[in-house]
Amino acid sequence: MALTPMKQITTLHRGHFLTLSPSLCSLVCGKRVNFMGEYRRPGQPRDNTPPWKKIQFSFSKGVEGVQKHLGLLKDEMFQRFVGPQGRPLQVHMQEQTQVQWEFRGPESLSQWVVSSDREIGGRSEAYLKLGRNSNTCLLYGTLCSTPPRDGETRYSGYCTLRSKQPMMSFDRKKHYDWSSFNTLYLRIRGDGRPWMINITAETYFTHQSDDMYNYFLFTRGGPYWEEVKIPFSKFFISSRGRIQDEQHPLWLDKINTIGFTLGDKADGPFQLEIDFIAVCNDRAHTEEFAYEVYKRNPEV
Questions:
Q1: Helix, strand, or coil here: 39?
Q2: Is residue 181 exposed (0-12), middle (13-18) or buried (19+ Cβ within 10 Å)?
């Protein structure tokens, strides 16, 4: 006899019978099944626009795009004969410190994206500009933890600065290879607030697309610059703001982006000034991973 969606469903899984509650029957037997890829921010309506309506065709932009990607492909081919990222192979093997991002002009700000809880209806504000003498980057604004009145969002109050995903020819992802280094090196000047450093790496499975490596940075504040060295072994994994039980070290060979997030629930103005972001090889640091790693199937 066929079962209705409102009745309990019993299935066989690995030799055991599993019973689904009526609340889950609507997800299994309904017209629409919720997958991981259909996640949306609270307070935002679902995008039901058909895919064919999102296509924007322009012949002139197509020709410019082909010329751009062919130029990038040419640079990639010549860099292979010179060395990684255009540097000689001997220099690449002997260097102990490598600057990844520095702010020395307006074009350097185009590599970064600023966001806040205004995307979900919040009231926080975040801005990015060059510092004095155009040699630094200044992230400033106002944090407000009041949640929007949309009936869904319970928490609010965050501001984020994130680097853009570098791209190669024909829209292929370009990754940073930090496998020769073990420490993140920053020169910053904060206001005493705690910031969270976020690093994303390429994943092998789609359900890991929201995984992020985090570390809490406590700035000193004041007028003096602060040089910070953070070993990569101190970064832990989180997904959508939740620390994961299963931890493993950061994969340094395929780094995508780095970011800074403020969400300490202390309403008011904030600022963070950054001189450069680099990676270095600290030979005195030998730790592989700072957190306990659990085994799903422990050895007997």
A1: coil
A2: buried
- Residue 197 CB: number of other CB atoms within 10 A? 20
Amino acid occupying residue 247: Q
Tokens (6 digits) for 211 = 């995984």
How far apart CA 268 and CA 261 sit, in angstroms, is 15
Q: How far apart are CA 277 and CA 162, in angstroms?
A: 12
**Distance, CA of 122 to CA of 55 (rounded, Å):** 31
pLDDT surpassing 80 at residue 274: yes
Half-sphere exposure of 290 (CA within 13 A, CB side): 13
For residue 217, give the nearest of 264, 176, 250 by alpha carbon. 264
Span 88-104, pLDDT tens digits: 666 655 568 889 999 98
Q: Dihedral of CA 188/194/195/196: which sign? A: positive
pLDDT of residue 16: 42
d(CA 215, CA 12): 42
Task: Return the amino acid letter for 129.
Answer: K
Q: In the numeric block, which tokens belong to residue 243?
A: 């620390």
Alpha carbon distance 235, 295 (integer Å):
19
Judge if pTM exceeds 0.90.
no
Q: Are 283 and 181 in contact (CB under 8 A)?
A: no
CA distances, 158 to each of 113, 115, 270 (Å): 14, 9, 11
